[in-house]
Description:
Elements: E1 18-19, H1 31-38, H2 51-61, E2 68-71, H3 74-85, E3 89-94, H4 99-105, E4 110-115, E5 130-134, H5 146-159, E6 162-166, H6 176-179, E7 191-196, E8 209-213, H7 216-225, H8 233-242, H9 246-269, E9 281-285, H10 290-295, E10 299-300, E11 302-303, E12 314-318, H11 322-336
Parallel strand pairs: 1-10, 3-4, 3-5, 5-6, 6-7
Antiparallel strand pairs: 2-8, 7-8, 9-12, 11-12
Amino acid sequence: xxxxxxxxxxxxxxxxxxxxxxxxxxxxxxxxxxxxxxxxxxxxxxxxxxxxxxxxxxxxxxxxxxxxxxxxxxxxxxxxxxxxxxxxxxxxxxxxxxxxxxxxxxxxxxxxxxxxxxxxxxxxxxxxxxxxxxxxxxxxxxxxxxxxxxxxxxxxxxxxxxxxxxxxxxxxxxxxxxxxxxxxxxxxxxxxxxxxxxxxxxxxxxxxxxxxxxxxxxxxxxxxxxxxxxxxxxxxxxxxxxxxxxxxxxxxxxxxxxxxxxxxxxxxxxxxxxxxxxxxxxxxxxxxxxxxxxxxxxxxxxxxxxxxxxxxxxxxxxxxxxxxxxxxxxxxxxxxx
Length: 337
């Protein structure tokens, strides 16, 4: 069997596993979202342009609906965009989300890597066609300031490179607006900002994401490169409902902050080295066989050894409910003696 290579692969371990490998909102799916997709009309084709959903996203983000395109999850948009633009050479952070690499490899692109903690500007040479940046970065949680992103966009414009900025974990930041480059899409036509409904609204099974971009040519290429009904009617209904739940997002951020601080205090007490987290997950270092030990206790964490630039002993754990986080800490405490 081909290795899945992502978190959330609970099917091989059984329904009773406590899943820290997928970074989903621990507060669960809002009732408004559940009601919306259950009541959606599946007896007719969905709107291929997702007009109502794009308008709802526009109301939520302030972006022009004509600059928004929706997809079957952010990962699907990554593949569609790569197929539409077909970059000859792509610059990707190491480590970072593996679907960037898979997407551009599928269209024959050469790949160059840059250290996600270092200055990317010297790596943006004139033969680079596309650049992927994840902010906050998955799996490390590293954050880039807006000033750094603007410098990157300026240099990419000079080199003729298109920048894909993945903000799928932006919703979980304490100050999401401070780190979002969505407003920069008006200034930079070589920028696409990716967002997802999956994590914040806990609907990974529905698959729904969107992209903001002001380049009409790029948007038209995407529409012509994908199947007509990219977003199902239940997913679109769920997304429309989710766009009106600002209080749910504020409540989630407060909860994540409190639990993240609890977990890092406990990690520090146990002597576990970790990267300072910014979103709803923690990247840390431990014994290479930790995942197997925790599985025996019914706990699944994400091994990050298959990320470019990482190795055995690198792990990621989601921030979950307090009672569940306590179970993880207890298991780690027992392991470390």
